[in-house]
Design goal:
The protein is of the alpha/beta class. It has a single domain, classed as TIM Barrel, CATH 3.20.20. It is about 50% helix and about 10% strand. The strands form 4 sheets. The protein has a 5-stranded parallel β-sheet. The structure holds alpha-D-psicofuranose and manganese (II) ion. The site of manganese (II) ion has 5 residues, from loops.
Length: about 400
C-alpha cells in the first residue's frame, strides 16, 4: 500500500470513536429464553469494566451508552455512576430513557391515548435529560416501542400529534450542548403500525421538536430492500444525521454482528460519510454506537470483533479516490466510477490498521490480545462466586 494511503487511514482512524452499549455485556435472550454466560456482567460496574476492556484493546471506545432503568438505581446519584465509569477507564455516553418496559406503557408512551401516561413518559425523559447533564453526556437517545398491533386500534394522526407535542416538551429541557437523537424502526414490538416507522417520520419529528433534535439511523431498522446509504446521504445533506447504530441484519432487527451479512453495505454507508467530508472539508458530527446484544457469542469478544470490523470498513471507504470519482462521474464513466469503489473495498487494510495500533501502543491484533489476557476466565470465576453469594440464578425461561 502507498505511504499516502497508510497516512490517510491513520488519520481517519484517529478521529473515529465508537460507543459500546451497556446492554451488550449482560445476559440477554429472545422472548423464547435467556441464555447465560458465566462471565456476563451482573451489574453496572461489571458492564463498565467489560466496556473498559474493549476500549483498552481497541483504543477507540471511550464511552458507554447507558439505559436509565437498567444502569441507574432508583434514587442513586448519577454522578456516582459517572465516577464508576471513569474508574473503569470509560465515561458515560448516550443516555437511553426507558419508556417501554413498565406496565403503564402497555398501550404506548408518547403515543398513549391516556394523557397521564404521556406525561409520565415525558417526566421520565426530562429526568433522563437531567441525568445526562449531571454526567456530562452529550446525547439523549430516544427509541420508542410505540405503535399499534391492529387496524383501528388507534388514531394515527392523534398519535402523531401526541408525539410531536411530547418531543417538543422534552426538547425544551435540553441544555445548550445536549442533542436529542430520534430513532426509528419499521416494526416490532408493534406489528401493524409503528409511530416512528422510518427516517422521514424521524426527520419530521426532529425538525418539529427543535434544533437540537437529530435523526438516529440504526442499520438494522430497515426493510431488506432499502438503500440505507441513500438515507445517510440525505440526512447528511440536511444536517440531520445525529447518530448511527452499528449492527447488521439478515431478516429484520436481528442484532447481528456489523458486516457479518453485508459488509459492502457498511462500506457504502461509510463511503457517503467520507464523501461528505471530501465535499465539505470536514467530517460530520455523528455519534457512532454499536447496538448489538449477543446471546451466543462471548460478549466482549463480539464487541471487539465488531469494532475492528467497523475500523476496517471505515478505512477501506476512506481510500476511495474521490477526486477521480468526481471526474469519472462527470464523464458518465459508470464502470470506471463503480470500480473505484470496488478497488477501495478490495484493499487489504489490516496491516495499516496494525501499524496505527502500534503507533498508539495498542496490540496489533486486539481480539487475540484480549483472549490471551485471561480476563474472560477471571471474570467468569469471580462473577460465578459473586452470583452464588448474592443468590442470583442465571438463565431461565419466560414461562
Ligand atoms: C430495540 O429495537 C433497540 O435495539 C433499539 O435499536 C434501541 O436503540 C436499543 O434497543 C436500545 O434501547
Ligand atoms: Mn438502535
Amino acid at each position: 500500500m502507498k505511504r499516502s494511503a497508510i497516512t490517510k487511514i491513520h488519520n481517519v482512524l484517529s478521529d473515529f470513536r465508537i460507543e459500546t452499549p451497556s446492554w451488550g455485556f449482560a445476559d440477554t435472550g429472545t422472548r423464547f429464553g435467556k441464555f447465560s454466560q458465566a462471565g456476563s456482567a451482573i451489574d453496572t460496574g461489571d458492564k463498565f469494566a467489560d466496556a473498559g476492556q474493549v476500549n483498552a484493546f481497541t483504543g477507540c471506545c471511550p464511552t458507554v451508552a447507558v439505559h436509565i432503568l437498567w444502569d441507574f438505581q432508583e434514587g442513586e446519584d448519577p454522578k456516582a455512576v459517572g465516577r464508576l465509569a471513569r474508574k473503569n477507564g470509560v465515561s458515560v455516553g448516550s443516555i437511553n430513557p426507558n419508556i417501554f418496559q413498565d406496565q403503564h406503557y402497555k398501550y404506548g408512551s408518547f403515543g398513549n391515548p391516556d394523557a397521564k401516561v404521556r406525561q409520565t413518559a415525558v417526566d421520565h425523559v426530562v429526568d433522563s435529560i437531567g441525568i445526562g447533564k449531571a454526567v456530562k453526556s452529550r446525547y439523549v437517545s430516544m427509541w420508542f416501542a410505540d405503535g399499534t398491533n391492529y387496524p383501528g386500534q388507534g388514531n394515527i394522526r392523534d398519535r402523531k400529534r401526541w408525539f410531536e407535542e411530547c418531543l417538543k416538551l422534552s426538547h425544551r429541557k435540553l441544555a445548550k450542548d445536549q442533542i436529542l437523537l430520534v430513532e426509528y424502526k419499521p416494526f416490532e414490538p408493534a406489528f401493524y403500525q409503528t409511530d416512528i416507522a422510518d427516517w422521514g417520520m424521524a426527520y419530521l419529528y426532529s425538525k418539529k421538536a427543535g434544533p437540537k433534535a437529530k435523526v438516529l439511523v440504526d442499520i438494522g431498522h430497515h426493510y431488506l430492500a432499502q438503500n440505507v446509504e441513500q438515507i445517510v446521504a440525505f440526512l447528511l445533506d440536511e444536517g440531520m444525521l445525529g447518530g448511527l447504530h452499528l449492527n447488521d441484519r439478515r431478516y429484520a432487527d436481528d442484532d447481528l454482528t456489523l458486516g457479518s451479512i453485508d459488509p459492502y453495505q457498511i462500506f457504502r454507508i461509510f463511503h457517503e460519510i467520507h464523501t461528505y467530508a471530501y465535499d465539505t472539508g470536514s467530517y460530520p458530527d455523528i455519534a457512532y454506537m454499536v447496538d448489538q446484544s449477543h446471546n451466543l457469542k462471548p460478549k466482549i469478544e463480539a464487541m471487539i470483533q465488531t469494532v475492528v470490523t467497523a475500523q476496517e470498513l471505515y478505512a477501506k471507504a476512506a481510500l476511495v479516490d474521490r477526486r477521480q470519482l468526481r471526474s469519472l462521474q462527470k464523464k458518465c464513466d459508470i464502470v470506471g466510477a463503480e470500480n473505484l469503489l470496488k478497488d477501495a473495498y478490495a484493499t487489504d487494510v489490516r496491516d495499516a490498521l496494525a501499524s496505527w495500533r502500534k503507533k498508539k501502543k495498542l496490540a496489533e491484533d486486539p481480539l487475540a490480545a484480549f483472549k490471551k489476557s485471561g480476563y474472560t476466565e477471571r471474570a467468569a470465576e469471580e462473577r460465578t462466586a459473586r452470583r452464588k453469594k448474592l443468590g442470583i440464578v442465571q438463565g431461565g425461561s419466560y414461562a
